[in-house]
Amino acid sequence: MINIAKAGTFALGTRTVNRLGYGAMQLAGPGVFGPPKDRDAAIAVLREAVESGVDHIDTSDFYGPHVTNQIIREALSPYRDGLTIVTKLGARRGDDASWAPAFSAAELTSAVHDNLRNLGVDVLDVANLRLMFSHLGPAEGSIEEPLSVLADLQSQGLIRHLGLSNATAAQVAEGRGIAEIVCVQNLYNVANRDDDALIDELSAAGTAYVPFFPLGGFSPLQSTAMDGVAATLGVTPMQVALAWLLRRSPNILLIPGTSSVGHLRENLAVAAVDLPDDAMATLDGIAAATPAPAAH
Prior knowledge:
Elements: E1 9-12, E2 15-18, E3 22-23, H1 39-51, E4 56-58, H2 67-76, E5 84-89, E6 91-93, E7 99-101, H3 105-119, E8 124-130, H4 144-155, E9 159-165, H5 169-176, E10 181-187, H6 196-205, E11 208-212, H7 224-233, H8 237-248, H9 261-268, H10 277-284
Parallel strand pairs: 3-4, 4-5, 5-8, 8-9, 9-10, 10-11
Antiparallel strand pairs: 1-2, 6-7
């Protein structure tokens, strides 16, 4: 049995969660749209994750839309004590599978109630405001209006904690002036390290940082340096990439996603991977030689 507790824990709001979690995005159909090809397989992955000790699941009602949350409810409800489900708000899907901002008070309020209904809960553990000022990645713009809407819904008891996704450091600072921010979820991995300074700042403040696309996302990471470290340690290159994140900073919470039980087990086994100092030094050099990716 995989012991993911070896990877440690960190605070996520009032909860303490294992640093190895699970991202549910891949449980929807192609392009994160529509139902999965094999719903039973999706349910099996979720149940395996929780049985393996995962107590932090990342999702959104705009995955599908609605599909992923409904699968989570079918697989895991009634939810076991200590399971923290984090969702995202601020986007909507078009009939053509497009992504569009959904920042108005009406859209955010509707999204909160959609998440509550489809997850089958009375309150959302954590709701991240997903910022969409640019399709290229984080971009400046005031978040006061939409975050204030969520803070009001939080005061009504519909949301326990608030976080930000795809945010700049300035937006994180602005957000903290409106509500307590318990986590920031941005693109970050061994090859894409724009958030190095932000991660260190959040770590000092005791705030969780949750990298999305920890393995590169739609363009999986490829690196001869990573391959070399993996061969030396007898693990896979993707396990090396996850192990680097775990060692990078104690406030990093991982949510690698997969629709395969086998791949899930491989991801969770990284709890036992110990990267030596020379391997970390090798991996730290990857980012300098990597072009910036297109954002999700």
